[in-house]
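Objective 1.3, modelling of assemblies. Example input:
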Amino acid sequence: MYLREHWYVAALSAELETRPLSRQILGEYVALFRNESGQVVAFADQCPHRGYPLSLGKVVGDQLICGYHGFTFDCSGTCVAVPGQDRVPSKADVRSYPVVEQGLWVWIWMGHGAPDMESLPETPWLVDTEHWSAVSGVAKIDAPFHLLVDNLLDLSHETYLHNGSIGTPEVATTPFEVEVDNEPGVVRVFRHMNAVECPPFYSRTTGLSGQVDRWQDIDYTPPGYYLLHARIANVGEPPLPDGTDDHGFHMKIFYGLTPSTETSVYDFWALSRDFCVGESEIDQFLEKMQIAVVQEDVDALNILQRRAASNPEMTEVSVKIDRGGLAARRMLASMEEAALAI
Amino acid sequence: MYLREHWYVAALSAELETRPLSRQILGEYVALFRNESGQVVAFADQCPHRGYPLSLGKVVGDQLICGYHGFTFDCSGTCVAVPGQDRVPSKADVRSYPVVEQGLWVWIWMGHGAPDMESLPETPWLVDTEHWSAVSGVAKIDAPFHLLVDNLLDLSHETYLHNGSIGTPEVATTPFEVEVDNEPGVVRVFRHMNAVECPPFYSRTTGLSGQVDRWQDIDYTPPGYYLLHARIANVGEPPLPDGTDDHGFHMKIFYGLTPSTETSVYDFWALSRDFCVGESEIDQFLEKMQIAVVQEDVDALNILQRRAASNPEMTEVSVKIDRGGLAARRMLASMEEAALAI
Amino acid sequence: MYLREHWYVAALSAELETRPLSRQILGEYVALFRNESGQVVAFADQCPHRGYPLSLGKVVGDQLICGYHGFTFDCSGTCVAVPGQDRVPSKADVRSYPVVEQGLWVWIWMGHGAPDMESLPETPWLVDTEHWSAVSGVAKIDAPFHLLVDNLLDLSHETYLHNGSIGTPEVATTPFEVEVDNEPGVVRVFRHMNAVECPPFYSRTTGLSGQVDRWQDIDYTPPGYYLLHARIANVGEPPLPDGTDDHGFHMKIFYGLTPSTETSVYDFWALSRDFCVGESEIDQFLEKMQIAVVQEDVDALNILQRRAASNPEMTEVSVKIDRGGLAARRMLASMEEAALAI
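Predicted structure (tokens):
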């Protein structure tokens, strides 16, 4: 089942132009585009006439014209013209989804109720380009949403799957804390690795070398929003008691987990840093590294899903490293129960 | 369900040679070939022995030899030899389908009863090469037959889907007449566009430019035969009262709609004209244009079907432009009802 | 259903190295590899932790480390290390399959009971490199096991499907004997073709030309082991009464028929000869010819299966050439009955 009454990342801001983009989100086909003023619009990707994808239509001004028979819609989804007749039938309107563009990402409200603006994640690090530099991307995974949750909540896999980029032996061996905040629902995982090897991902960008303190603090807000606060610093130089931390290097690692179908998920990501701000070479290095890391996850989850699909009775053995993932599963299960109860 | 007791186009005449062609028609695999005298033969594409496709066999003289174990059939489908023994089992014959080669097209009778020769469409424009020049082709569409019927009966889509070749604004906006002739079953759609833009398809071939009178008169004989009478002429020069029309340019646009499976259809086409007869450059131009037009339909129907398959509850909103298509749907529905009642 | 309590060929010896190979055998995914001492190991290809394929793991010494989260197994399948904790859960062991490496082939025991060493086929011709030279290979066929049994038990198809390499007219026309030995289960087919054309496969390797005596004696031990004793000699020079046969050329043609899934099968093969021993040019010639022959079978069975899948009511007409295949089907059916009765 899908958790509908939530915000999900629908697209990278950079992906959207007047030529529409088709995306399947929570099982529904959505046509995303900008009108000629640059405003982002999201329609059900299906012309009410004969079902042709509106994403194959053409934007003219602030209207979208279907590419098969020319039914024409304004940005609210109201049908404003039909070929061969003057009267426009009232049933010819198309569903329009609430969307919010916020820095590098565009969010969509997939709920049937009114959008809950309170629950829209705030991502200042993707908006404030003066103090933060960010890169972003998206991959599609042919595996269900929950396998991506498992993956992101258990970072011990970095040591094995992402060895050579972000994985070092200590990620798997360092004890971590899990904290569950039910109101509002957040799962937090704190892994503070002190005096450990600095992986290439950070050594090449911070200039630090040898041993460092490396902290990974996850805030996962189910279902679709994951934020990893990464901190790299010289050994033994924690933040000051007042919270200031000028001697640490900070990176915010975002994931937007957006179910596409029951067995596929969009893996939106963004990296924002408070160091080397504005340096495009660093942007390019991090983007290239992260694309490779994400592809390793994509490959792993794709094959995991192919195997699971051919063996529905596959069992699991859980150990300590799974505590974060299990907490997330429990929170998602309660949210599903609550959604069913409505 | 399939309407079996009808003639369908099975192949282009030019496609058939002694090397057999396999085609799935109304869900049945058919092996089509010429024997060494040039006669067209159609067999069930399945050896009675172990089911190997006879289309992978070899024609020797007027016999076909199966490519797996050598069962041998004459042109009526009678098994005449079996390896390793002299006696030929009586159950080893293969079904042979009635076929008729008529100009550029080969028709097949898929019925279980005797072929109804009366109902075989007459296509003199594909046979009389002295007065008419014709080109033909075929595409396979991964969408059900009825989506192709909808497409061909509502030509207003030319304006949007085939813009730049045959589509002009007036195709979508000009009112048209629909006529239903139940005995024999024909749906006719008359669209007479007077003083309208001449699209590239006709301007380059007729030499007319600027405004023209452009008529499109459809005769659709369900299930499988569609003939569009196109007429292009200078503005205000209709046919004479006695029916003669020396000052008009005429093109017959044929479609053979042949269901392959429940979700795929062959889109046979032919264009025959009474101008520039014998000019191969015009043949090539029209063939190239038509292949592009058909590909636009193929692409549109393929995606329409993929979407419909993932959303079985897709609804429709019908408007005036759909009258021809709706009349065809009704006629097909009665034919299906009648077929079921037998 | 699968016949599990049997030995099957799992891999060519040459395929196995420390980098694991994944193979689906009798529906089960199996990871096959050598540890660093060269010993062959076969595991269920699924980490007990989260199901990740162990074939994507890494061999270090005599251990395999899972590529996702680092669960580590010794060669018996016992889990010896888990990341992030000292205690190893007892449920974390992985199933290890008995395997035997014997010359060019590696056999696996897929049964739930203890491996029956008595029933392991003896293949001295793949081991004794002093007197025999052998080549081997494997192809995967997208068709069920029983179609490959039919194919191999009825060699009359050589005349039609493998014309130009091993097929000559006489294979299809020569009468043959079928013998069924129920204890232990073996189906034998004897086809002695005397004074017949020598096909290219043998003429280029034996140096014989013109007419020869060509014998094909099949021993099929269901389900998975097939051995064809081929003998080529000058016309009228049979083996001596005491069984010696120095004037004949002998080739052993092996097939390992290993079901992969209900609708796919591995076609392992090996050719071993007692002539031109050690001549690598002859190895290469035979390997190339056999790969082409096997590909003809693969193509034929693939299409046969696609057709059968789309027509579950396909019927058959059996004739004399099918006696070997029918005997094999009967023996397999009794073995399945017996297996179900346990």
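Residues 125-341 of chain B form a domain with the Naphthalene 1,2-dioxygenase Alpha Subunit; Chain A, domain 1 fold (CATH 3.90.380.10).
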